[in-house]
Recover the amino acids of this structure.
């Protein structure tokens, strides 16, 4: 089992992210994942700062996509970060947030095919290949080659983690990725996802695939404070989830519709009243250190091999990291 931690450089600035990553490293957390959203501080610059300030923690974007960044740009970025960090870089990439992309005039058509082609070209470029006309549809490069970078060690290559939720992307992750970042906090979701990944890895003879639970985490010695801090995150996840996922967790669809409507009006007081224990337990890990430890153990039993402590972490991020280091890692 390994552990990761997520930081969003929107609600915290770059210096704060760097300091939090240094603290996480001191608590034996293995990975730092920095989110990528056009409206926040750019993850490339943040990761470079983290790389220079740390010595052991691995790091990468969580996650990029091939609509806002081309495979050539991501390959160049990975090699640069890998050089700065002395070989600690990873690359998280997914099909793209189809609710966010239209806001910047990107419609994200054929996201799974786009993603697969991007991964193919990134691996080739980071291996030092000159990419010719390969017959690909979206990234049919013609003579592209990385010439001014330090390429990663050939045996290690590019550790690529696929951000996956739906069955098609989960299958793709198993076939072409080194790991998956699955945006879920509940064993029920992994009981569905892991068999799809295992079937895919077995079909290509792959072993040592890293299954990451990209959780919504909130930990505090006060159970009430921890769970209150998780309410808004649980609300957004519930509002964006398909009916079959809500049904899987036994949630009231009418209540979720009310939560979605309240979020649309920025009525967070009503959101707080509508989100109950069912929503919190379905979509987050929230509570005391003992409660969090028990729920992380449940994920391990379900087959998860990396637990990522994601936003909000808790009512106080510094306290949360220290508690995670002491009681969970």
């Amino acid at each position: 089992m390994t552990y990761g931690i997520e930081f969003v450089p929107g609600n915290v600035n770059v210096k704060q992210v760097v300091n939090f990553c240094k603290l996480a490293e001191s608590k034996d957390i293995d990975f730092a994942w920095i989110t990528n959203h056009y409206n926040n501080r750019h993850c490339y610059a943040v990761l470079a700062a983290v790389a220079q300030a740390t010595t052991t923690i691995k790091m990468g974007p969580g996650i990029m996509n091939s609509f806002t960044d081309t495979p050539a740009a991501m390959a160049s970025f990975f090699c640069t970060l890998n050089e700065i960090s002395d070989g600690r870089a990873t690359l998280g990439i997914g099909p793209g947030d189809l609710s966010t992309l239209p806001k910047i005039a990107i419609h994200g058509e054929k996201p799974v095919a786009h993603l697969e082609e991007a991964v193919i070209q990134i691996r080739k470029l980071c291996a030092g290949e000159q990419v010719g006309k390969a017959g690909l549809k979206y990234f049919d490069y013609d003579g592209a080659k990385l010439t001014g970078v330090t390429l990663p060690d050939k045996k290690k290559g590019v550790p690529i983690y696929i951000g996956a939720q739906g069955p098609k992307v989960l299958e793709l992750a198993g076939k072409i990725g080194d790991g998956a970042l699955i945006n879920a906090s509940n064993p029920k979701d992994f009981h569905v996802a892991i068999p799809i990944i295992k079937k895919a890895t077995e079909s290509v003879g792959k072993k040592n695939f890293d299954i990451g639970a990209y959780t919504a985490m909130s930990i505090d010695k006060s159970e009430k404070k921890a769970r209150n801090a998780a309410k808004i995150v649980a609300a957004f996840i519930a509002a964006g989830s398909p009916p079959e996922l809500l049904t899987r967790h036994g949630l009231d669809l009418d209540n979720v519709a009310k939560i979605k409507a309240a979020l649309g009006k920025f009525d967070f007081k009503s959101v707080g009243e509508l989100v109950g224990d069912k929503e919190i337990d379905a979509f987050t890990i929230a509570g005391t250190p003992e409660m969090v430890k028990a729920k992380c153990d449940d994920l391990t039993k379900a087959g998860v091999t990396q637990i990522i402590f994601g936003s909000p972490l808790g009512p106080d991020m510094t306290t949360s990291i220290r508690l995670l280091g002491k009681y969970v890692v």
Notes: The chain is about 45% helix and 15% strand. The mean pLDDT is 96. The beta strands are 2-7, 31-34, 58-61, 64-65, 91-94, 160-164, 179-182, 210-219, 285-287, 306-313. Residues 102 and 108 are 8 Å apart (CA to CA).
